[in-house]
Write a structure and sequence with these properties.
The chain has about 70 residues and is of the alpha+beta class. It has one domain (about 5-65). It is about 60% helix and about 10% strand. The chain has 4 helices and 2 strands. It has a two-stranded parallel ribbon.
Length: about 70
C-alpha cells in the first residue's frame, strides 16, 4: 500500500494518524509518539492504528513511545 492510498483511507478517520504517515513519507525513520496518543488510537480506532503502525514498520519507521 502506498502512502497516498493509506492517506486516502485516513481521510475518514477521527484521528490524526495521517500526520504519522506524512512524516514517514518525508523520510523520517523514527517517530516519537506519546504513549497516551497510542492508547487513545488503540481505544478509538484499533483497526486504523494497527494498519498505520503496520505500514510504518513495513516502511522501516520505528515508533518510540514516551
Amino acid at each position: 500500500m502506498t502512502a497516498e492510498d493509506l492517506l486516502s483511507e485516513l481521510r475518514s478517520s477521527r484521528t490524526d494518524l495521517a500526520r504519522l504517515v506524512e512524516a514517514a513519507r518525508d523520510r523520517h525513520t523514527r517517530l516519537v509518539i506519546p504513549q497516551r496518543s497510542v492508547e487513545a488510537w488503540q481505544q478509538r480506532e484499533p483497526e486504523t492504528w494497527t494498519k498505520v503502525s503496520g505500514w510504518l514498520t513495513a516502511h522501516g519507521v520505528s515508533i518510540v513511545r514516551v
